[in-house]
């Protein structure tokens, strides 16, 4: 059903004439836009613009802070701990209460329900009580007439804390067995014997930093009390159902008293999965105490101090391998810096274990995972969800092995790839059934001229005293599905109105990734109507209940199928109706191009809808989907946690300055697998955007906590995400040509997270350049590769 | 003419606002007072660009357009100007402006939160380039969008949109009408607590009469005292309107840059004299900050990590301080007495900066080391100016930032060079002298050890460049240059 556009390509650097097939951006003036209704063409497979694009560019797309405020709305600001670890002996809010506009101050004793958040592990207080566990932990709120009054007064609250020793370093936490959750070990075969018997052995350590989400829209929630102790909460959240549950839990109410709504987020990236729940609970508690609507919009500095980041990791590893660099034994200890509470650290650390293989067969292996407790923000979901921290380790190890043996790292990587007929079972006992790694990497190797460029770069480096270049190809194989199997379900509602227009609502949330657009495309095609007849409405717990987080790249897979099923139910009703009119079988009635076609008659969709309504046919339906085939034992971490894998590979070239450590990404070629694309423009946006975000994680985005545990990189002035100038001068993305081998919506594959990890090719290329500069086969580079870290890696 | 209210032109109409506190920001006025929520707050410190708006000002009978950050712009500072926000671009029938249409066509918005800011930066480019018949290149777009952060797209589609917008049917501003409206608003602005006189005499007399008033120019740092430190000011004295301070004067031996000249215009003048400074100039913050901030403000603020001062010190710039009925002039490095402290008396203001023009044979290089190339603050800034006579160092100026409590002149390193033959050994000795001269701190930007090491390494880079080495600085490296 999908009119796939063959190999969709975008290239940068060519200007308007350079990329003739990149969607529609090279239309000559006056050419008809392909956005004009084209009733005969299916919607899926087309590079349609984001459903909100026209509103977003005009400034009319509404985010939570833009919603017209209900009369009497107050504003809250958090009171933060200034100490990383200590006993909370008391608070004095008198000065704050006396300040202009202040309407109230609240602390833990003002919580009518459970003072502990309804997280999985139930270990995180709503407001700090008795003790504080990181700088920035929220102790209470000040509520005032205006935002600035609340923020000023929050700083005037005197907090009396008796400092205790703080654990700030993940290795120190591990040494003290300071954990938020018990360690987990995954083991196959006899790695000790394999290591001992290996022809070559290497061991090493690695440190990889965390990452701030830096969604452009900061955390925000707006809680409005309604009649009869009901609550309407506007939340910038990836998980409205969880926000609903947390708010009800904190207010001591049943879930049915709380409705949570999210039309869109200004970016999420995992940072608005659990973290949005905190904002909503705080706003609701303030609204509950003051009996007024309350909005909580965090200042960016507070957002940095309060909310969790991507988990920083530290590793110890030992590898045994043969002369070709093929691994024969591996032992890994991975230390996840979880911060002060569990949050999602269990599943994040699990996914790091799952992805320690990346694209490679590990053989005899042991992975020990430690979920370390430190006195920092509680680290949380972030695009990739532990996957990047697993993948970077194995890529680092294979790079080390190649340099140790004097082999091309790509040859070592290829020697270790999963096989198709054998060597095809993961360390968690899942058979890899859809492996396209070898043909995909081979195609990229050729199209990027990898071998020639390696030789060119080696010659160039020999003549270049200051600047050294590096090149690397790394692949990705990323497991798609929530590892918690029960999350892999979704619901949707499709309404056809009497004029033939269509509304779809589903449990997923829109954070910019184009989910609503793709789902509108799927629904349009299911009903055979033009894309323009379909609208998607705000995600709301009262419409589709108990929805899973929009996370794990699964938004389209789950909700798209649910919406497709809902639309199919309506279509079936209409087909049966038409079949009755025309005396044919319902299966003979088809829907396309805005028409309903039976063997006897062709009618307009609107006309059929109108008569069906008059004949009391149901024009709306729900749809429900649950992912098949998956199962998984969470004690042994074995089974089939993933429905399928998404694949890709990237070839990246970089340059480093050996005087300063400054570095640049010069050229990137990507070949990535999205199955049959539902929307090539949106998929391209996810690949490019994810990749650049990955470059940020591994180069300029450095989180620095000082020796008191204060996060010193607290805002964009000090925390540097990529800018337009960091876009590689050559940046070409191509889509792999095959559909998903599993039965997934439209033959597509999930795309949100996998491309992020392709940026590891940049980091490996930097290590290649470092090794070229050093000349001793070593590249002791950590992540992120800031200028300082690169310079340090060149010496010692 | 004095006005008690803030008056500006928007959508062709006069907007008039009374009783606005002096420290209220333009963004607060737009979102909270006028209910225009299209403009977003991303960071509240002028570093993300989500709040970008475009200001129009009558300059020499023409409209000059500048994209600025509304989150750190004091609302009173737009009195007498025209203001465009993202809501103001589409036609009455909803037809999108070319900047907006191009963003849609190129898939330049995903979450959409940074989008209004990008659209406004693009609108600034549209007015200043497309409408002037000048091409929009990818390089220009990268520079013009350097102050706008996007976390979703990876920027490629947005840069495409910048190029694409020229291909959309043209839409212009009715400049004659806006100019006529602005002419009605000309004059000083003095509301309760906010004084913005349009003459130097008036400015200096207000300075003398209100020594405690917070002096502001472009407010790109003071704005953060408001948004982040929550400071309120009883009185603000805005120097940017005094016409005498808005001039750049070209003299045979030097140029005089008035204290109210924007960083954009000031750096344009400096780059005109020394084209090698272009990339250094473009790395000063992002364009919206350069459009709002002033060279005088950067100098008076005296941050040890401000990038103008090392350049000016290396070039032997002098600073002119003004008071009612008098003035004094001193070398810039002597202006600073400690961390953010200077010799300015309570009745004085920075009037201008005098920058000597390049001498024949002058070798000048400005190096900025930061985590990110664009829109970042220096870990280390080093500017070296050298003149050689018969192979010996005849004149030397070295300015450094990020290595001490103030911007500084590296006198010991200069001493190690002056009169010496310019050889690799001399360069090595100068590098060691420079490393020994300062004891930088460790902070979130870099460690002390890195700063010290890089100081010396930059002298080595200067040596290599003085010997004709090319392609050894990634700041302005071209792929062809590397790949050749």
Automatic annotation (TrEMBL), chain A:
Coiled coil: none annotated. Residues 58-165 form the Aldehyde oxidase/xanthine dehydrogenase a/b hammerhead domain. Residues 29-41 have a biased composition (Polar residues). Residues 1-51 are annotated as: Disordered. One of its GO terms (molecular function) is molybdenum ion binding. SUPFAM superfamilies: CO dehydrogenase molybdoprotein N-domain-like (SSF54665), Molybdenum cofactor-binding domain (SSF56003). Its EC number is 1.17.1.4. Transmembrane segments: none annotated. Keywords: 2Fe-2S, Iron, Iron-sulfur, Metal-binding, Molybdenum, Oxidoreductase. It comes from the Bacteria. The keyword Oxidoreductase applies. Gene3D superfamilies: Aldehyde oxidase/xanthine dehydrogenase, a/b hammerhead, Aldehyde oxidase/xanthine dehydrogenase, molybdopterin binding domain. The keyword Iron applies. Pfam families: Ald_Xan_dh_C, MoCoBD_1, MoCoBD_2. Its cofactor is Mo-molybdopterin cytosine dinucleotide; [2Fe-2S] cluster; FAD; Mo-molybdopterin. Belongs to the xanthine dehydrogenase family. This is Xanthine dehydrogenase molybdopterin binding subunit.
Automatic annotation (TrEMBL), chain B:
Keywords: FAD, Flavoprotein, Iron, Metal-binding, Oxidoreductase. Residues 4-89 form the 2Fe-2S ferredoxin-type domain. Its EC number is 1.17.1.4. The keyword Calcium does not apply. Residues 186-360 form the FAD-binding PCMH-type domain. SUPFAM superfamilies: 2Fe-2S ferredoxin-like, CO dehydrogenase flavoprotein C-terminal domain-like, CO dehydrogenase ISP C-domain like, FAD-binding/transporter-associated domain-like. SMART domains: CO_deh_flav_C (SM01092). Coiled coil: none annotated. GO terms for molecular function: 2 iron, 2 sulfur cluster binding; FAD binding; iron ion binding; xanthine dehydrogenase activity. This is Xanthine dehydrogenase small subunit.
């Amino acid at each position: 059903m999908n009119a796939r556009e063959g190999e969709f390509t975008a290239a940068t650097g060519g200007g308007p004439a350079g990329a003739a097939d990149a969607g529609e951006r090279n239309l000559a003036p006056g050419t008809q836009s392909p956005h004009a209704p084209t009733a005969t063409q299916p919607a899926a497979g087309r590079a349609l613009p984001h459903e909100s694009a026209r509103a977003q560019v005009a400034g009319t797309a509404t985010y939570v802070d833009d919603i017209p405020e209900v009369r009497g709305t107050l504003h809250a600001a958090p009171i933060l701990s200034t100490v990383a670890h200590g006993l909370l002996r008391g608070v004095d809010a008198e000065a704050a209460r006396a300040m202009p506009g202040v309407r109230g101050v609240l602390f833990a004793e003002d919580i009518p329900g459970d003072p502990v958040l309804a997280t999985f592990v139930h270990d995180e207080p709503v407001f700090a009580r008795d003790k504080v566990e990181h700088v920035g932990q929220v102790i209470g709120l000040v509520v005032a007439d205006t935002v600035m009054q609340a923020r000023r007064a929050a700083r005037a609250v005197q907090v009396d804390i008796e400092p205790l020793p703080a654990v700030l370093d993940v290795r120190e936490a591990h040494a003290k067995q300071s954990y938020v959750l018990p360690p987990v070990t995954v083991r196959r075969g006899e790695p000790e014997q394999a290591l001992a018997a290996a022809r070559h052995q290497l061991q090493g350590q690695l440190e990889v930093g965390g990452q701030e989400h830096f969604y452009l829209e900061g955390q925000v929630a707006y809680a409005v009390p309604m009649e009869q102790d009901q609550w309407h909460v506007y939340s910038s959240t990836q998980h409205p159902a969880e926000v609903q549950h947390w708010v009800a839990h904190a207010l001591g109410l049943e879930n049915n008293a709380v409705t949570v709504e999210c039309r869109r987020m200004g970016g999420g990236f995992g940072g608005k999965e659990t973290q949005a729940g905190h904002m909503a609970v705080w706003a609701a508690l303030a609204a509950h105490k003051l009996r007024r609507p309350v909005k909580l919009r965090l200042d960016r500095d507070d957002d940095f101090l309060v909310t969790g980041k991507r988990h920083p990791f530290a590793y110890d590893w030992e590898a045994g391998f043969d002369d070709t660099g093929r691994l024969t034994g591996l032992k890994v200890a991975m230390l996840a810096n979880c911060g002060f509470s569990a949050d999602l650290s269990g599943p994040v650390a699990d996914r790091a274990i799952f992805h320690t293989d990346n694209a490679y067969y590990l053989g005899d292996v042991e992975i020990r995972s430690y979920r370390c407790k430190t006195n920092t923000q509680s680290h949380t979901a972030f695009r990739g969800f532990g996957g990047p921290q697993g993948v970077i380790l194995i890529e680092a190890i294979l790079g080390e092995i190649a340099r140790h043996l004097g082999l091309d790292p790509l040859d070592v990587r290829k020697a270790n790839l999963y096989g198709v007929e054998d060597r095809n079972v993961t360390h968690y006992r899942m058979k890899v059934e859809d492996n396209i790694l070898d043909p995909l990497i081979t195609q990229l190797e050729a199209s990027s001229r990898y071998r020639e460029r390696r030789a060119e770069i080696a010659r160039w480096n020999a003549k270049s005293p200051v600047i050294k270049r590096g090149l690397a190809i790394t692949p990705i194989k990323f497991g798609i599905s929530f590892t918690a199997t029960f999350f892999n379900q979704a619901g949707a509602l499709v309404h056809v109105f009497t004029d033939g227009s269509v509304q779809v609502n589903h449990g997923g949330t829109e954070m910019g990734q184009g989910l609503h657009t793709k789902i509108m495309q799927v629904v349009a095609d299911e009903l055979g109507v033009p894309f323009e007849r379909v609208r998607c409405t705000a995600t709301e717990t009262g419409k589709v209940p108990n929805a899973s987080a929009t996370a794990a790249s699964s938004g389209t897979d789950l909700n798209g199928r649910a919406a497709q099923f809902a639309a199919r139910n309506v279509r079936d009703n209409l087909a049966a109706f038409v079949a009755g009119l025309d005396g044919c079988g319902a299966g003979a009635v088809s829907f396309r191009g805005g028409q309903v076609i039976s063997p006897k008659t062709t009618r307009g969709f609107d006309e059929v809808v109108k008569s069906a309504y008059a004949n009391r046919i149901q024009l709306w339906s729900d749809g429900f989907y649950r992912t098949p085939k998956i199962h998984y034992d969470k004690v042994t971490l074995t089974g089939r946690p993933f429905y399928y894998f998404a694949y890709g590979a990237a070839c990246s070239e970089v340059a480093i300055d050996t005087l300063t450590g400054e570095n640049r990404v010069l050229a990137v070629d990507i070949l990535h697998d999205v199955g049959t694309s539902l929307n090539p423009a949106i998929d391209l946006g996810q690949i490019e955007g994810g990749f650049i975000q990955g470059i940020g994680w591994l180069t300029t985005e450095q989180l620095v906590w000082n020796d008191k545990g204060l996060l010193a990189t607290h805002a964009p002035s000090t925390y540097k995400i990529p800018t337009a100038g960091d876009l590689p001068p050559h940046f070409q993305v191509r889509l792999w040509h095959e559909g998903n081998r599993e039965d997934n919506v439209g033959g597509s594959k999930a795309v949100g997270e996998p491309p992020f990890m392709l940026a590891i090719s940049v980091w490996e290329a930097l290590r290649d350049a470092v090794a070229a500069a050093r000349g001793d086969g070593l590249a002791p580079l950590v992540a992120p590769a800031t200028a300082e870290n690169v310079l340090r890696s060149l010496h010692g | 003419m004095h006005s008690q209210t803030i008056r500006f032109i928007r959508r062709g109409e006069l907007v008039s606002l009374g009783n606005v506190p002096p420290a209220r920001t333009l963004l607060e006025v737009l979102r909270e007072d006028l209910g225009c929520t299209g403009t977003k707050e991303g960071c509240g410190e002028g570093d993300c660009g989500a709040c970008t708006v475009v200001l129009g000002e009558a300059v020499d009978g023409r409209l000059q357009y500048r994209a600025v950050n509304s989150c750190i712009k004091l609302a009173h500072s737009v009195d007498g100007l025209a203001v465009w926000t993202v809501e103001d671009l589409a036609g009455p029938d909803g037809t999108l402006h070319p900047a907006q249409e191009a963003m849609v066509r190129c898939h330049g918005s995903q979450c959409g939160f940074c989008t209004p800011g990008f659209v406004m930066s693009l609108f600034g480019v549209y007015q200043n380039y497309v409408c002037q018949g000048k091409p929009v290149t990818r390089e220009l777009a990268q520079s013009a969008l350097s102050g706008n952060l996007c976390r979703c797209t990876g920027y490629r589609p947005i840069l495409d949109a910048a190029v694409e917008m020229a291909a959309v049917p043209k839409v212009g501003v009715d400049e004659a009408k806006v100019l006529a409206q602005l002419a009605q608003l000309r004059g000083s602005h003095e509301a309760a607590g906010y004084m913005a006189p349009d003459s130097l005499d008036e400015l200096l007399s207000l300075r003398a009469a209100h020594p405690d008033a917070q002096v502001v120019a472009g407010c790109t740092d003071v704005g953060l005292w408001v948004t982040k430190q929550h400071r309120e000011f009883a009185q603000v004295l805005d120097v940017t309107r005094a016409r005498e301070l808005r001039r750049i004067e070209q003299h045979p031996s030097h140029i005089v840059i008035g204290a109210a000249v924007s960083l954009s215009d000031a750096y344009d003048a400096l780059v005109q004299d020394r084209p090698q400074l272009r990339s250094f100039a473009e790395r000063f913050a992002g364009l919206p900050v350069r459009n709002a901030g002033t060279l005088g403000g950067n100098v008076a603020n005296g941050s040890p990590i401000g990038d103008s001062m090392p350049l000016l010190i290396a070039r032997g710039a002098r600073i002119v301080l003004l008071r009612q009925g008098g003035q004094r002039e001193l070398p810039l490095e002597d202006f600073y007495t400690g961390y953010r402290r200077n010799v300015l008396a309570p009745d004085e203001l920075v009037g201008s900066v005098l920058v000597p023009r390049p001498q024949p044979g002058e070798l000048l290089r400005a190096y900025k080391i930061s985590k990110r190339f664009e829109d970042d603050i220096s870990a280390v800034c080093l500017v070296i100016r050298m003149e050689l006579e018969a192979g010996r160092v005849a004149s030397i100026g070295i300015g450094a930032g990020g290595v001490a409590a103030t911007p500084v002149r590296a006198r010991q390193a200069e001493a190690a060079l002056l009169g010496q033959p310019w050889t690799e050994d001399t360069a090595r000795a100068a590098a060691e002298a420079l490393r020994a001269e300062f004891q930088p701190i460790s902070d979130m930007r870099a460690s002390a050890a890195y700063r010290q090491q890089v100081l010396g390494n930059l002298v080595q880079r200067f040596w290599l460049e003085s010997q004709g080495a090319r392609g050894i600085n990634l700041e302005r490296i071209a792929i062809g240059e590397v790949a050749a």
